Amino acid sequence: MFTLPAVDDSEVWVALSSQQMEHEIGLAGRIEPFETSVLNAPFEGMVMAHELSPGMPVEEGQALLSFDTALLEIKVRDALANKLKQQQVVESFRTWTNGPDVARARRSLRVAELAMQNLDLELSQVETLYQKGIVPRNERDSLKHQRYLQALELTAATSELETVQAAGKGEARTIAEMELHNASIIHEQLNALLAHKTLYAPYSGVVLSLGSPQPVSGEAVTLHKGALFTMGQQVIKLANMSGLRVVTQVSESDVSKFSLNQEVRITAEGFPAALSGYISAVSQLAVPDQNEGSAARFPLTITVNQPASGDFKLIRLGMSAQMTIVTYRNDNSFIVPHAAIEKEGDSLFVEYREGPDAPAVRRAVTLGQSTAEGVEVFGVESGYVRVK
């Protein structure tokens, strides 16, 4: 800084004092629920009578509608029958060593062994008589052939017993146990669905729609008594009224002015009083626009704070809302006329006095936001600046 030479009385000096400066942007949008939930059919069944309608308020835990369980009960009984069948199979493997198959194989082996013993005894006697010349040779050879055949039967009976015994310990038993486990799980799951035959409101809110929307192929299902819904098909769509939000769009030239948690003032003709909120989301993706060459627009989500009354009962979904967002605020701002700014090279200056009788000095400044009255500058305090 340096002191300027004396100036004449024709110079204009403007008083400079601290003031609050705000820049606001106005937006318009509509009230939406902070959260929506879809209640799906817990199982295949027909709807019983209900008294719901779109826009109807519901309370947390309120019974909304019930499903007829006739079709589900058929599936539960079929699953139980399959489970019992698998239990019988597994039980037969647990008592396999004393079971009928093993007993039958043991009897066959025992019969073959006794027959073999009888043939061995008879052949021994015939061999003695043959050596003494009492019986002919063909009788002895016939017994030998019978013994050979019986030996084959004895081997087959032994192998069959081993095979039957192994069947109760191998993969067949493992498969039966796994099938029983699967059948038990299916039965438990189907039986548990019976407890969900009535749909309850998960929170206090508003009914948005009833029935399933139009699918890509097929027809939409309307909600009425006797309507058949498949498992997982949409039945009711609810809005959670414990919180609200406003979704709007901003142009690409303004989107950089918004950031998370910026305060928002929300007003509307239908509101009993102004509401406050904050920016909770600024989309990074522009909204698709069919008009080529038009400026991109980005969705902006504002979360509405709880009103002083503690609830949103007086605010209805779909109401239009006007929002005022402070994009810039400085409580200690100094604004000077544009004509007070001097430029030399890349630097900006103002001629400044701390008081009416103080000497004038040259101060370097940096510019902030522009207003209708002038421009915000940094680098000066309360005092006076010269305007050419």
UniProtKB/TrEMBL annotation:
<dbReference type="GO" id="GO:0030313">
    <property type="term" value="C:cell envelope"/>
</dbReference>
<keyword id="KW-0175">Coiled coil</keyword>
<feature type="coiled-coil region">
    <location>
        <begin position="102"/>
        <end position="129"/>
    </location>
</feature>
<dbReference type="InterPro" id="IPR050465">
    <property type="entry name" value="UPF0194_transport"/>
</dbReference>
<protein>
    <submittedName>
        <fullName>Secretion protein HlyD</fullName>
    </submittedName>
</protein>
